[in-house]
Amino acid sequence: MKTTDLFPSKYVKASDLESGPRNVTIRELAVEEIGQGKSAEAKGVLHFDDLDKGLVLNVTNCRTIEDAYGVETDAWPGKSIEIFSTKVDFKGDRVDAVRVRVPKPPSADGLIDPQEPPPSGGSGPADLDDEIPFAPIRDLP
Q1: Which is more confident, 135 or 41?
Q2: Which pTM value belongs to this model?
Q3: Is the torsion defined by CA of 69, 73, 77, 42 positive or negative?
């Protein structure tokens, strides 16, 4: 048993995504009280069709979704996002965090989009090895 299993949460944590990113479909955005006592505050929480836990929105994740789907949150239900775990800087420390991105739709034939640049996997793009016409330098007067 992992220690994270000892403290279940109704919200997505970075440790919930150790097996990798997860595509989810937004069901709704609700405003909920997060925290307890004097530290409790109202925050936006995304709920999903295909995940039992909600995702407490922070500014970074909200802006990412907003960039893709607009500022009107009533338009977000039915839209897909990918949630993943990554390291971020927080108050001088590197900590695990949940981030979102919008998954790229597959092309109609399931192949890589020809407009998409190829993934970097070496010293640079192959077209950098093309011959460049050479003009000799002449002595300048």
Answers
A1: 41
A2: 0.70
A3: positive
